[in-house]
Amino acid sequence: MKCDELCTVASATAIGGGYSMLLLDAPAISKEVAPGQFVHVRVPALAESDLRRPFSVFDARGGRIEILFKSVGRGSELLAKVRPGDRMRVAGPLGRGFPDPAPGADALLVAGGYGVAPLHFLSARLKEKGFAGRIVLFAGGRTAADLLQLDRFAALGVECRTATDDGSAGAKGLVTVPLDAALEECRRSGRPFELFACGPGGMLKAVADRAMALGAPGWISMDRHMACGVGACFACTVKTRDPKGGVANARCCVNGPVFKAAELVWD
Ligand SMILES: Cc1cc2nc3c(=O)[nH]c(=O)nc-3n(C[C@H](O)[C@H](O)[C@H](O)COP(=O)(O)OP(=O)(O)OC[C@H]3O[C@@H](n4cnc5c(N)ncnc54)[C@H](O)[C@@H]3O)c2cc1C
Ligand code: FES
């Protein structure tokens, strides 16, 4: 059930590289939200008439939600300045999140930059549910500063494999370098796996292409500029295949943000 909750900031922490972690008292959203869903935040210092900003949930427990975000423009820069005790309206949980992997399959999570956020929440929930398969995170970024919260994944028992464009951490190159090595291991061993991805568009397409080529389920969290966040304005369309083989315009905010790789049509 979606609500518009007045949330209090419990903590706000700059973590370097232009990224921040925000912990919000949000009892109603925290109880309902599932991995891959998002919240729509009214940034306190912006005017009432300004659009809300969408963010994935990094974790939810004990009546609180955590958001990991990068300062990229006016809204996120102002959000990085909030302090404990500040209050803001947050709508959520919104959209459709990730399904659980099938029993017996490994979960291969692929993230670029802040794309780790919904994948951390997915890992935490899978561990709570006693998911027996392996969970492996493939995290990529421009530099080491874009590899985020790996200690939180490690604390959950998630294996982390990394890549950076400049080679400052992990393999040098795209995140598909360690991913392709792991996919080859899976091919040889015959172990079933599912792919879960969140990050920049090029990376999402690369993961979706691999899921399709290997006949494995792929779950892709699409990133679109959003306005209403609730399906009313069509600002956030994503091209998908319709059942008759044509192309349809799905709304990322209500039909996604997570889509099946097989549903997506790439420009
Ligand atoms: C479902 C969903 C989940 C998201 N989760 C997170 C998250 O967990 N952490 C996080 O840091 N960000 C996340 N984002 C992106 C975040 O919403 C945008 O970065 C934010 O709205 C930018 O607002 P702004 O006012 O700071 O920037 P603006 O001033 O609006 O724009 C500044 C720059 O950012 C670009 N931008 C704006 N919106 C987006 C967007 N949706 N995606 C990519 N670039 C954008 C603009 O083109 C421009 O170049 C998510 C977006 C969606 C749709
Ligand atoms: S943001 Fe309005 S329909 Fe998706």
- Report, as a whole number of angstroms, the end-to-end distance: 33 Å
> What is the helix tally?
7
Low-confidence stretches: none
Largest sheet: 7 strands, antiparallel
* Overall spatial form: globular
Q: Percent of residues in beta strands? A: 25-35%
CATH-defined topology of the largest domain: Rossmann fold
CATH level-4 homologous superfamily of the largest domain: Nucleotide-binding domain of ferredoxin-NADP reductase (FNR) module
Number of domains: 2
**CATH classification, class level of the largest domain:** Alpha Beta
Sequence of secondary-structure elements:
EEHEEEEHEEHEHEEHEHEEEHE
CATH architecture of the largest domain: 3-Layer(aba) Sandwich
Enumerate the distinct ligands. flavin-adenine dinucleotide, FE2/S2 (inorganic) cluster
Number of strands: 16
Helix content: 10-25%
Q: Overview of this structure, please?
A:
With 267 residues, the protein is α/β, with parallel strands linked by helices. The chain folds into two domains: 3-94, Elongation Factor Tu (Ef-tu), domain 3 (Beta Barrel), CATH 2.40.30; 106-221, Nucleotide-binding domain of ferredoxin-NADP reductase (FNR) module (Rossmann fold, 3-Layer(aba) Sandwich). It is built from seven helices and 16 strands. It has helices spanning 27-32, 74-79, 116-128, 150-155, 176-189, 201-214, 252-255; strands spanning 3-16, 19-25, 38-41, 53-56, 59-61, 64-70, 87-94, 106-112, 135-141, 159-164, 171-172, 193-198, 218-221, 237-241, 247-251, 258-260. The protein has a seven-stranded antiparallel β-sheet. The chain is globular. Bound molecules: flavin-adenine dinucleotide and FE2/S2 (inorganic) cluster.
